[in-house]
Amino acid sequence: MLDFIFQPKSIAVIGASTTKGKLGHDILNNIKKFGYSGPVYPVNPKARTILGYKTYKSVKSVKGPIDVALIIVPASIVNAVLKECGEKKIKAVVIISAGFKEMGGDGVKREEEIKRTAIKYGIKIIGPNCLGFINPHKDLNASFASGMPNKGNVGFVSQSGAMAVAMLDWAYNSQVGFSKVITVGNKAGISELELLDYLGRDKDTKVIAMYLESIIDGREFMQRAAKVTRKKPVIVLKAGRSEYGQKAVSSHTGSLAGSDAAVDAAFRQCGVIRAGNVEDLFDLCKGFSMEPLPDGPNTCIVTNAGGPGIMASDALADTNLKLADLDESTKKKLKKNLPEAASVQNPVDIIGDAMFDRYKTALETVIDDPGVDSILTILTPQTMTEEDETARHVAKLSHTTNKPLLTSFMGGEDANSGRQILNHMDIPNYEYPWRAIYTLDKMYDAFLIKQKKGLAYYTAKHKKINKDPKYFQLKTIDAEKILLQYGIPVEKSKLITDPKKIDEFPVAMKIASRDIVHKMASGGIKINIHNIHQARIAYKEIVRDTKKPAKKRELDGILVQPMMDKGEEIIIGMKRDPHFGPVILFGLGGSFVEVLKDISLRIAPFNRPEAMDMIKQVASYEIIKDYDTKLIADTLVKVSHMAMDYEDITEMDINPMIVYKKGGKVVDVRMLYK
Description:
By secondary structure, the chain is an alpha/beta fold. It has 22 helices and 29 strands.
């Protein structure tokens, strides 16, 4: 546990300043102003007192024990100060100072130096180049962020100090409260990995939210997150979507499974909810922190205006939610108590002249419906609308049910007081209904995540391939042999250098060259060859077309396969991500895969249930579902195991594998290595 850092019994501020406006002064002032009750030791060799605290020339001159030291000195002397902390047996430091890895050059060396010192003395480091941390439940603001956020249940971790400040500014207005606010800066010591574990166990934290620009160890992050997300929702805004872009891609899979796509796959697999932007992060924190999770997908919308109700219904189409089918008894009761012009279907339109009592009646009725899992209340201000009374009654009803109740009080100043009441009474309100629907959808996702069994495990065999340093690609026949090792059905190829060697027809003929990645694009495939005459022509055309580029290409000959019956073509691929390891890809096969981009991804290894989810995730599942999905799922699992075993293989495309109602075979495979 890291309680000794975030609930310290004593604090030293090394670099405390007498000058208002300097970090060393403002951080010390925050500690004092918000009521931290433990001993505080400012370190400043030139001052006697600062803000009423006795000062010390160094931490070594402090007689009492120190749990945490905040370091705010020039980067050039941080390591010397860190050594003194080690000699004082201080267990943790928060290095606010900048001028390290983020600066490059000598800053990188300085950061490596403080890492070595921390290891030597067993010191936990937060930072450097960070804002500090805040623990509202202990009245401790050990940062240079102004103000103290409300006590609450959101544990927020940020790699950026500016993002932490933005989050705090937003929270002041929305009444969202925090259990902890922790900035990690360069992550020279404590990273998101340790903080996932800590906040996962922290009794004050209900929701974990993170802003990350990098992930220290992708696979370890997945392992830890998978355990935490079964207990608490983890929401991450991961920046740097185009960090790797499309650099040096060489296969279909390489172009589709870049680093950000791998992040998406990893988060999905381990149950992390990914926020697309800052607005998403705010919306999700509000909903998750204030309301229970829905235990089903059925949503009821209550509105006093038809248009917003329709827009909210439309928003459901892009989610896992659906409009609840109201029970006949519910509709009968609504019809009895609402005006004749009202709609008792879902969305329940209580029409524009609805006062608070009509909202109260409608909401009480739909809340009691066992087929309703969540409720969205929409209010548009009209001349007779009672925003404040409605807000109060919505809040009271919300606190009597275990079903999540979100609101969208729309409009400008007319609805402001109602929104303030909702905020004050911890009811999540959204400016637009579709933002509320987005939040409910992610909350339902979090409920489903809790039902998952966790990540699959597989012990890698660490097999080696026979590499030729002149090339970057295995021979097709060698790649086929690797697949066959795992029991993956393959239509084996025969290598020929003379078309006369073809002894049965019809066949497909393909170029055999380790310099060519895309056989079709290079003119290296001919199909439906029915006789020797056609085979001779095809042979000549393949050799001619693939020799067209100026670069000299190695040609082993021609690969021949029997023509297969028509089935459905799929692609299964693998790309090795630097942070998460092997990323497995699935989608419809053929040459249009990069155009359509209808794919799903997972991080290896995984099991058959995860593979089936992978298959169902693609939009083209309606096409695939009537084919042998069991074979596809088994092949995906086997490819994930192969990718774990053969670490030298960097990319792979099985494209296509032809599948039928029962059975199927791999028709073409390419494997790349470094």
